[in-house]
Every structure is written in C-alpha cells, then in structure tokens.
Amino acid sequence: MNDLSRLFAAHQPAVEAAALETLRSGWWLNGPRMKSFADRFAEYLGVSICIPVANGTDALELALRAVSNQRGPGAEIVTVANAGGYTTTACRQVGLVPVYADIEVCSQLLAIESAVAGLSEHTAAVVATHLYGNTIDVPALRSAMDAAGYKHVAIIEDCAQSHGASIGATKAGALGDLATFSFYPTKNLGAMGDGGAVATNDPTLADTIRRLQQYGWRTKYEIRLAGGRNSRMDEIQAAILEAMLPHLDAQNAERQQILDRYSLVAKEQVRFIARRDGSIVHLAVALCADRQGFRKFLAERNIASDIHYPILDPDQAGWSGLPMRESSSGLKASRDSVARILSLPCFPGMTDGEVDRVCSAIVDWKA
Ligand SMILES: Cc1ncc(COP(=O)(O)O)c(C=O)c1O
C-alpha cells in the first residue's frame, strides 16, 4: 500500500543532514527545531499558533480536554463513526461521550444535518474529520450550528488526513476553533517516527493546551491545571518535518495524479468517492459492489488493498457498554458504506507502471 523507503531515498541528503545536525547539537527535546517547525507549519496553514505534540491522538485528546475543561464529566462530542476510532479513543481518555453523526455516501464525510441533529445541551464540541483528504465545509457546519442555537459549541478539525487541503483561500486547520494533525509516517506530511500538532488562532485555548501538554504546569514544577500529561514532539522529528514541509504540495499533486488516473477508468462496480473543491488526496478510496471479489482479484495480480476503516466506532467490541449515542438521524449511510469501501495504493513515488497495473485491474474486473 505504501513504500516509505522511496520517500526517504528521494529526500535522503536533506533528511540525513537534519537528523545529524540535531543529534550533534545535543538538544533533543523542547528546543529550537520544534519551535522553528511550529512557526513554519503555522505560516503554511495561515494560523497564529501551532503546538507540536507527540502524535495525532494526543493532539485530539489535548484539544478535547481544552474545550471541555469547564463542562464536567459526561460532556458530549459529536463526530463520525467511520474515521478509524481516533476521536473516540481520545474521548475515552478524557471521559467524554461520543455522539455519532451519519455521513454523506458520495463524499464519506460528516453530514451536516446529522451533526446538528446530534447536538444537545451537553455538547462540548464537534470533531470534523477531513477524511481521506476530502474537506468538510466547516463554514457551512458553523452556520448550521449557530442557526440551531449552538454558537458556543467549538469545532475541532481533525486534519490527520488533510495536510494542505483548503476551502477557498483558507487551509484546513484554519477553519475551526482548533485543529489537530498527525504526522504518522504515511500521512501527507509524515515524520520518520511519531508526531502530531494542534493549530489554532485562539491564544487562550493555546495556553491551556500548552499547559496540559506539560503536566498542567503554569511555570516549571508548578501545577495549576488538572488533567495534564506529557506529550512532546522530539527535535529530530521536528527537523525532518521542517525539511519535508516544502515538498508537501508537490507530493499532494502526485497523489492527486494517481487518483485522477484511477478515476478515469472507474466504473459502476468500482466508484471513487466524490472529492470536494480544495480537497487533497490522502487515500484512493472506492465504493465497490463486490468488495471481497475485487480484493481477491487484486491479490491474484499482486496488488495490495486495504480497508479504511473496517469497523464503525459504535461496533468496536472494546467499547461495548461504554457511554455513547447515535444522532437521531441514525447511521444508515455509515453502515451501508462500511461494507463497500476499499483503498487502493496511492503514495508519492509510485511508478507509472504500478499505476498502470492498478488501472488495468479496475478495467478488467467484472463483479
Ligand atoms: C483521521 C485520523 N485522526 C487521528 C489519527 C491519529 O494519529 P496518530 O496515529 O498520530 O496518533 C489518525 C492516524 O493515525 C487519523 O487518520
């Protein structure tokens, strides 16, 4: 599905120099590279503040804690059920109750009406996940929430799969109150290890997150906030991410070209999900009439495939019996889609020959 050694080979001198300089500096945590990457990434997103953290799930947990701090236990978070469970994992850490809204089948993104139907007096935030690089219309979500009387409810964008996406001139990550990023190696901007970040224009929320990220300290060793923990991005990852950031848009264009070629040969039995204006491509995801048959056909031709994601959050056995609820609109579209989605290989460095092979398989497949 991905070959990260190709990415390393394409950027080896810059990545090696960044890592070696960091090691030689003797400064491996909380240093100048973390600050420098934070500034560069904030500038790229068009936000005033970026706080690097250890990974994308921590970023979600810290963001959720920051917006729900005043709410007490049992506060609710409206989100989707089809995005891999990361928001639910973070909710469980904080003691928040996930409320699952449905998706639109064509884009596989949060359906705004269903999100609004899930809001209640207990809602602390809506997590809008820009899944597969496809951008949710956050301004439209904000207007619908405001019109329904939920102006005070925060929107957190989960941008783990949407580095570089935008709506109009505004980047994903600058559309809501807070945004969270993962720099897991296969992401559009990936570290060579773990990494994550929270981005915002709100200095008060940023201050809370910085404290929560460092044990709840106000000043060194002085704890003023409960719920703190340790979540840091190390200097080597920050230096590598800063070296890779200038290549993000070109690598997004490569993924886009691959998906464009697949889409050209797509047909009713293998239909790629609709992309919104300003979206980027993270994964090439199709809805398949006979997924199992197509996967078998691909495997016979030595073509990898995967499912993102095979189990909806409310159906995960590990969370059964824990507090959760569904939006009153139900989860019909999420349930219909989970049996049909399939991801095909799509990563920077894929050769034309490899893309051709996938295209031929799509053309030759008869359900
Ligand atoms: C949509 C989404 N949110 C959150 C995460 C969590 O990021 P991490 O693996 O860095 O904790 C991921 C990726 O793994 C993701 O795809």
TrEMBL record:
Stretch forming the signal peptide: none
Modification N6-(pyridoxal phosphate)lysine occurs at: K187
Organism: Mesorhizobium kowhaii
Classification lineage: Bacteria, Pseudomonadati, Pseudomonadota, Alphaproteobacteria, Hyphomicrobiales
Sequence similarity: Belongs to the DegT/DnrJ/EryC1 family.
Gene Ontology annotations of biological process type: polysaccharide biosynthetic process
UniProt keyword list: Pyridoxal phosphate
Name the record gives this protein: Erythromycin biosynthesis sensory transduction protein eryC1
Active site residues according to the UniProt entry: K187
InterPro entries for this protein: DegT/StrS_aminotransferase, PyrdxlP-dep_Trfase, PyrdxlP-dep_Trfase_major, PyrdxlP-dep_Trfase_small
